[in-house]
Each structure stands twice: as structure tokens, then as C-alpha cells.
Amino acid sequence: MLKTLPSVQSVDEALNPVLRQMEDRGVLLDVGYLETVAVDLADQLAELERQIFEAVGHPFLISSPKQLGQVIYSELHLDQADGVNIRKKTTGLSTGAAELAKLQGSHPVIDLILKYREVGKLLSTYVLPLPQLVDSSNRLHTSYAPNAASGRLSSRKPNLQNIPIRTELGRTIRRAFIASPGTILVSADYSQIELRVIAHLSQDPTMLEVFQTGGDIHAKTSEALGIGRRAAKAVNFGIFYGLSAYGLAESLAVSREEAQTFIDGYLGAYPVAAAYIDQLIRQARESGYAETMLGKRRLLPELSSHNEYIRRAAERVAINHPIQGTAAEIMKLAMVLVPKELADHTCCPMILQVHDELIFEVQADHLEAVAPRVVKVMEGVIELAIPLLVDLETGPNWAEMVARPRAQKNTVGL
DNA sequence: TAGACTGGCGCC
DNA sequence: AAACGGCGCCAGTCTA
Questions:
Q1: What is the pLDDT of residues A187-208, one digit of tens each?
Q2: Angstrom distance, A406 CA to B5 C1'
């Protein structure tokens, strides 16, 4: 446990050799498997293309937003239906997935385009490029760097922080990230770290109580607002992104008025957190910057802009930076301390970081010893007003991970 | 033909 | 115009 806070600079310095080791070690990719996925997806894509041309009556470049917009808006007039409001971009009506979703049911081509986009994205971003990037042992090596603005790490060439997980098809790609023979992948992720950081920084008593008693913050919000869990999650996350009633209405597909009642309900349920958000904006406007727990500053001169759009964007950053940045700092501290704890880490190298998650490749016979130590170090990195909780998962690949129950306190004396 | 820009979308 | 923070990568398009 840290007595006094280190500087951002000293953390980044200590982190550097850790990152280089992770990059050097890399992660094993099942190249043969991914090549069979490639064939399957390429077939699917060709068939979808055929069906789209048939539905529309002529061929065109489906992946060109310009041509696609021409087809669905100028030719088919799908934006003209009642109650449909398609967002505009600088060059015309948007053809993004959220807008196409509003058109579902109005024409059979919409579902085909959404599927085409999903398959095409996975094929061109992951399935085809990744096998080209492995070394002679089929391992992938990314490059990590702390980001200048946010303090978070970024991963590039290839980016291993955006490997699909959300859809079933996406998980077929994640399955290609495998544990080498004799090892197991261990994932340790901070549970709701941003929300805990908000609770700590704001000292909102209701939030503190939820986290101190092992409660469920989404359930709490859901109950307080009388809304479903999905909507409650959107509100909980949206608040620290500085969301508007408009944005919440869009993402939940509810009316603006309804979205506003959700936001008002949130501010009523967590009044101290609400005041804290106001204070973040005020402080940043007065000082000219937003600041994290370790004092990383982000200059925000736009807070004084007379352009409302520019000013609002800066206000959202003033809210988000201290929260996202502080969470990133907690993770960086963990990344420095965990390898120290596992002093001889040839048994269990840390190989990946995805913002709130660390992945280790652990020799099977070391799992029982290593797992509780990783959790203990991560949870003890710093003392906040509420506990930090780490969830552990293990598996043969990155798609098929199962929760590893927390060690029980031995109260029965067996 | 290379590089910049735009829209789009994968993750947290 | 765009409307929710932080990233990196892709295809298509535009421009020098």
C-alpha cells in the first residue's frame, strides 16, 4: 500500500520497462483457426453483397457511405417515413449503424447492410490483418504507450485493446487468442473502477454506501429511478461522459422528456455526486485545466469559448478527465506493483492490458499460487474511501473465460 | 500515387 | 452542425 502518492512522471518511468516486457512476450495467436474463419467470413460477405444488390436492383460500393446514402436516402427515400429523424454529418445524412437501426423494418436491405458492415469490419480489421503480424512463434507483439491527453495506455500495430467481444461473431475472433501449451490465460479486471473513482472523489454518501456494503450500483440506480437495469447502466456511465438528455434519448430510444426525467432522477438520487460534477467544471474554468488524482493536468481554454458547442465539449472533458485519468493511474500503479510481487515472473508473465483488465499467461501448476497474489496487489494498490474489487477469470483462450470464485474466508475451521 | 480527410466502428 | 469521454484502424474519397 502506498503511503504518499507518487508523481505521474515516476509512475510512467517505472511502467516503461514493464510495458517493454509485455510487448516482447506477446500473445499467442491461433493462425490456422483464424484462416478458416477468414474463408467463412469472406463467403458470408460475398453472399450478403449479392443479396444487397438484388434488393436494391443494381450494384454499388456498399462500404462507401456516400454511395450507400445515395441508395437508401436518394433512391429509396427511407428517411422520409413518419417519425424517422436521421442524424446529419458534414457531407449529408449519416449511414451509421445507429441511424440504420431507425430504418429497420422499412426495407429488407437495411438488415443486410448491418450484417454486411459487421462481417466486413471483423474481416478487414482483425481476421485478415492479424495473422500477417505474428512472429515465427505465432505470437503478436503490440506497442503500448501512455497517451498524452488521457494518461490511459494505448495499444497499436496492432491494437490489442479493441479485440471484439460484444457479438457472437466477434467472439469467434477473440477465441484465436490462446494460452500456449501448459499455460492458462488469467484475466484480472477492476470491477466498475470509474464508478468507484466517482464515489471516492465525490464522497457521495449513497454511492459510498453501495460500494462499502458490496452492493450493486446499477441496481441502486435502477431502483431509485424506477427504470430497467439497462437504462440505469446507461445513466450511470453517461453521467461521467457529461451526457445530454438528447444523447441519452438517442442511446435508449426513448423520448427526450423521458431521458430528462432519468437525468433529474439521477441528480436527485446522488446529489453530492451531482454537486461534484458542477464543481469539476467550475474549478477547471477558473484554473484553466482539469486534473487527475496524481495531478496530471489537461488544459481546457475552450471552457471560456463563446461558442456553446465548443464550450460544452470542453465541459464534458472537464468531467471525464479526472475520472478516466484517475482510473488509468490506479491501473498503472498495479502494473508496476504486480510484476514486483511476482518477482520471478517467468512462470506467469503479464501479457496484455485493456484499460481495466490485465491478462497473464500462467503456467498451470502456478495458478493457485499466483491468482490470489495478483488480486491482492491490484486491490491494495491504493486506499480509497471504498474498496477496489478485482474479478478473476481463467480460460484456454480469451473468449472462453470463466469466473474464478474469490477465496473464501475459512470460517468453518475445516 | 501518397497523404489527408471523413465516416464508420471495434474496445474500455 | 452536432448532440457521450478516451483510443486506433479500416475503406472510400479527395487533393496535391
A1: 999 999 999 999 999 999 999 9
A2: 49
